[in-house]
Write a structure and sequence with these properties.
Layout lengths: L1 H4 L4 E5 L15 E2 L11 H11 L6 H20 L14 E3 L6 E4 L5 H18 L3 E5 L1 E8 L5 E8 L5 E5 L3 E3 L20 H8 L4 E2 L4 E8 L6 E2 L3 H4 L3 E5 L1 E7 L5 E4 L5 E2 L1 H5 L9 H13 L10 E4 L5 H6 L1 H11 L8 E10 L2 E2 L24 E3 L17 H22 L9 H20 L6 H15 L6 H18 L13 H25 L17 H4 L1 E6 L8 E6 L34
Parallel strand pairs: 1-5, 9-20
Antiparallel strand pairs: 2-4, 3-4, 6-7, 7-8, 10-19, 10-21, 11-12, 11-18, 13-16, 13-17, 14-15, 17-18, 21-22
Helix pairs in contact: 2-3, 3-11, 5-15, 13-14, 13-15, 14-15
The chain binds flavin-adenine dinucleotide (FAD).
The site of flavin-adenine dinucleotide has 39 residues, from strand 1, helix 4, strand 6, helix 5 and strand 18.
Amino acid sequence: MKLAEKGCKVKLISVTKCKRSHSVCAQGGINAAMNTKGEDDSPIIHAYDTIKGGDFLADQPPVLEMCLAAPSIIRMMERFGCPFNRTPEGLLDFRRFGGTLYNRTAFCGASTGQQLLYALDEQVRRYEAKGLVEKFEHHEFMRLVLDEEGIARGIIMLDHFTMKLDVLKADAVVVGTGGPGLIFKKSTNSTFCTGAANGRLFKQGMRYANGEFIQIHPTAIPGEDKLRLISESTRGEGGRVWVYGDSSKSIQTSDGKMIPCGKTGEPWYFFEELYPAFGNLVPRDIGAREILKICALGLGIDGQSQVYLDVSHLAEEKKHKLESVLGIYRKFTGDDPRKVPMKIFPAVHYSMGGAWVDWPAADDVDRWTRYRQMTNIPGCFNVGESEFQYHGANRLGANSLLSCIFGGLVAGVEIPRYVDNLATSYSQMPSRMYSEAVAKEEAFKHDLLTRNGSENVYLLHDELAEIMVRDVTVVRNNEDLKQAIESIKKIRDRYQRIKLGDTNNTLNQTLIFAAQFDAMIELALVMAKGALLRDEHRGAHFKAAFPKRDDVNWLKTTIATFNSGKDEPEINYRPVDVRYHKPILRDYATAKKIQPTLENVPANIPLPI
Ligand SMILES: Cc1cc2nc3c(=O)[nH]c(=O)nc-3n(C[C@H](O)[C@H](O)[C@H](O)COP(=O)(O)OP(=O)(O)OC[C@H]3O[C@@H](n4cnc5c(N)ncnc54)[C@H](O)[C@@H]3O)c2cc1C
């Protein structure tokens, strides 16, 4: 939208209908410190909460700028007609989400992502009508076309209906392909969130950052195809998490004391007891780990890994605001959460890691010779969940939609500047460069269609997903991670010996998936190896043998690089930019509302909105 506004011609490709992009599933809301409830909230506190929530792993300049821009983003979306909930006085309403003590989350009932996406889609249609945007839905990004200097000059895409490969030539490419949940098979992500685009770019030289940081959401329910999220908004509106207590068992609090697990036979609201300051709205990394700890103690419902999430006590007006989420629970379990507590469990939800993208800060001397949101491949930008930048080691709820829109706005400013400074355009590139790139993809397609081994790609995917869920999620240890890496490599070998059940040249979903699986394996290795090497506990990454955050050795961003000569990704590290706030203890048990001071903030930060 922003590129078209600046007169750029945009070709938009998507594996699904754009309006069906995964963002449509986002329920709870989008953060912006607008302080309409008179709590003295501010973008600075929002930035502080985000930095602390991410356990100080996020580079701080992009976080601050995102939080400063957030109120304008809400006003922009409101102008586009996004139907945000309002208070009886007509002000925008805000609910509380995890990891903050402020009501900072704007929402549209419990279908916020859908409303934001539809509002943006309408804007894009205006530019489509003007001929500035051309959409290619049901087309898949397969490969970047790189010139001799390694500069992005377009892409090769696959038509999911005809299975034909085609070229889109361009001066810049923006990737915004969402999360990689399918690497873990059943996650709360949509079933087309494979991460394959990033995996392919990784194989072409794009650096991948912080791959080991995978968010496990505390509250999901099972489904045959995918897991379904029960949004944090249920707790934001007053939902309480509990199990039946057992005073003969004890649990350690965050300050090291042992306390009994509630009173035997009575509901035990364990978050409220363990984290009195934040209660049911502790950040997700902490929430998921505590639930699994409680279940490991044998306190889960029916001895299983599930606990109750109760909204049945809420006033009708609050239940009404949650209707879309409660409807999901009713539809998929048959129980009415208005009347009985929901049974929930933690599930893979979000990737903090993603493409490494650059961020020259407003006062950096080389600000104007670098491009924000650009990957290490010149001309290839990356935004949204598929990049790494805003959430550090753990994302706070309702900060993702914000980072997606903010990253997009920034790309909308940086790309025209990049194109203006480009010495040569794609139109001057030799046609051979494009035909060679198509030929490589044709060869890969032919190879997949003619592999004649005994392996089934879907069964290999099941195996990969099981390893990833077992060894690379909430609790990790080095022995299992080493084993996991070896097993993933064996899966990669066996993948060479697949045979497709469908070898047709139209609408071939097996071929599509087999091609995606190639890239998913590489990202799985990035995640597992990053986790193996990081010997500390930071945000979502936890190893019992290294139970503390280790800023001396590990305050650094993991950078994975593909090396075709080696059978594992190469891992290096970059320092984290902590110029505004030095890392402090991440406390959610006793913390109070504070007015944090950020140091060294430039007086005038130009924002993209
Ligand atoms: C159930 C659920 C609820 C959530 N609720 C919230 C919430 O309330 N608030 C919040 O802030 N965050 C929430 N999140 C997180 C948030 O929804 C996502 O991080 C965000 O929507 C990702 O947006 P995106 O634009 O990066 O990717 P997506 O919305 O997934 O869009 C990716 C696009 O890329 C396309 N694509 C993918 N691969 C390819 C390819 N190879 N070739 C071509 N096109 C491709 C897809 O078709 C799609 O159009 C939630 C997440 C889940 C799973």
